[in-house]
Model the fold of this input.
Amino acid sequence: MLLIACPYCGERPELEFAHGGQAHIARPAKPSDASAEEWTQFLYMRDNVKGVYAERWRHAHGCGKFFNALRDTTTDHFVKTYKVGERP
Ligand SMILES: [Zn+2]
Done:
């Protein structure tokens, strides 16, 4: 079973977690002035990385908190997990 290290609770089974997509996606600074292209980039366009990738995760069946993780998409190995707002 794959174990994921929640930065708040420690290692837990993967079944307790929910994937939240790519991490570090910034909302347009001034939404009313953002173009359709900027909204498209923000809402839909994501990287498709082969290798280490920054993702958002939620400990849905634990503390309920969001955190970020660096995961290698080729091996499913979690390189590091860190709290939202921290640098990878
Ligand atoms: Zn947790």
Remarks:
- The chain has a mean pLDDT of 96.
